[in-house]
Write a structure and sequence with these properties.
156 residues, mainly alpha, 2 domains, metallopeptidase activity, Peptidase_M2, carboxypeptidase, hydrolase
Amino acid sequence: MHRVTTCAGEVSTKQLLEAFRLLGRVQYFIQYRDRPLTFRRQAGPGFMEAIGDTLALFALNPASLERLGLLFDNSTRFDVNHHHVQLNYLLRVALTMLPSIPYHFALNHWQKAMFDGTISAKTMNIHWSIYRYQYSGIGRPMPSATLDIHGTNHWS
């Protein structure tokens, strides 16, 4: 048996989302526990994150929240299958998830070019800016030194 605990009094949606992501990671480790140690590592850099995010998306849709008894109190009731509720949920998911796709796409191409030697250490920041602009349309806010490579950090 596995569980995720937290030291929070009032649980927010963000904390619940993170708990489901962690449960996705736990499930990943459970599925691979009988494999040799070499094969227990994740298939790719974001594979385990994708499993956790998928579980969180499934768990936090309005129908699942209603089934778990987390959506309503006694004073509020509405039909979770109504098209407006579903549309609002899908819009929230799109606005949360879609903006990060171009960033991760640019980061993946940049890392691949770094590892295969296409990009040298001296030009890595310039190439990061090029990839970021090419895939996201986001340019540098101001000129910086060639070796400043803080742009690839991902803050959630």
